[in-house]
Design a protein that fits this description.
The chain is mainly α. It is built from 9 helices and 6 strands, in the order βααββααββααβααα. It has a two-stranded antiparallel sheet with strand order 1-4. The protein has a two-stranded antiparallel sheet with strand order 2-3. Strands 5-6 form a two-stranded antiparallel sheet. A hairpin with a 2-residue loop joins strand 2 and strand 3.
């Protein structure tokens, strides 16, 4: 799709403003998780992209003897958009593993500084691998011809909707499993089945409360995503990855992890600035039953 360069600058400027606002909103624990560190790196990359497009906008600019034109602006935005699209699923996988290790405290001996260094290293590695994939393996072909003056051809992204549908289906399956377990528990138990049924009640309660907490915060955002899914609306690739989406993804992954590990005993809840993950009973009660 063709988008004018001023419109691209306006979108990037608004995205940067939103990104920095959300980063400062979460400043107390933004670097306590992989998604927080990656959000900071994304904000920095978006800012550099916005400044670069602003500086290169128009003709006649020169850098190291190379004349830079609007074609270089279009090329830069297209490359960054493809990198953002490539990063969607790797970020989901790494963030899910990070939340799982936090919830189960697999690395209790890792201090805060070491954790930040690891998250920073993984973030840099993902950016580097995504860029290498785009240039060497993806067969990416930029479109910089046959566009009118002061416009760029921009690729769109659909990974956001794919990720959302997949994770919501996962949470729905967990909720269905908890509901079916609760229904089966209505059958009068034998004496040696009381402990198992108490644990099943605990698991079902965790799943129910996790979904309720998540929906109380993000219901309107889910409606917005549903509208994007049902209507023929396309998202420019350079806007697809943003801190608001990562905040939603953080809460959704926490809900998925809580549903997954509640049967093993929850040790800690990953940091979240939007959902208050407090339950009405002790999560350690399962082990004492």
């Amino acid at each position: 799709m063709n988008i004018s360069i001023p419109s691209i600058l306006l979108g990037l400027g608004g995205k940067c403003l939103l990104n920095w606002s959300l980063v400062f909103l979460q400043k107390n624990h933004i670097c306590r998780s992989f998604l927080g560190v990656f959000s900071v790196s994304l904000t920095v990359v978006d800012t550099l992209l916005t400044l670069s497009v602003t500086a290169l906008h128009g003709d006649g600019h020169a850098l190291l003897g190379l004349k830079l034109t609007r074609y270089h602006v279009c090329l830069l935005v297209q490359i960054i958009g493809q990198v953002y699209s490539t990063l969607q699923w790797p970020v989901v996988v790494v963030a899910a593993l990070d939340h799982f290790f936090t919830a189960t405290r697999r690395f209790q001996s890792t201090n805060t500084r070491s954790r930040r260094v690891i998250c920073l290293f993984v973030s840099g590695l993902l950016w580097s691998l995504a860029a290498l994939y785009i240039f060497l393996l993806s067969g990416f072909r930029p479109v910089v011809e046959d566009v009118s003056h002061n416009q760029c051809w921009i690729f769109h992204t659909s990974q956001i909707l794919h990720v959302t549908v997949f994770l919501l289906l996962t949470v729905s399956c967990a909720a269905l499993h908890a509901w079916c377990s609760t229904r089966l528990l209505k059958i009068p138990p034998l004496n040696d089945q009381i402990t198992n049924q108490s644990r099943a009640h605990c698991r079902g309660s965790v799943v129910h409360q996790a979904l309720q907490i998540f929906l109380n915060t993000w219901a309107l955002f889910l409606v917005f995503l549903a509208v994007l899914l049902l209507l023929p609306v396309v998202i420019p690739a350079y806007l697809g990855l943003n801190v608001a989406w990562l905040c939603f993804l953080n809460s959704l992954l926490i809900a998925v992890v809580l549903c997954a590990v509640c049967s093993r005993g929850l040790a800690a809840v990953p940091p979240d600035s939007f959902c208050e993950w407090r339950f009405k009973f002790s999560l350690a009660a399962e082990d004492r039953t």
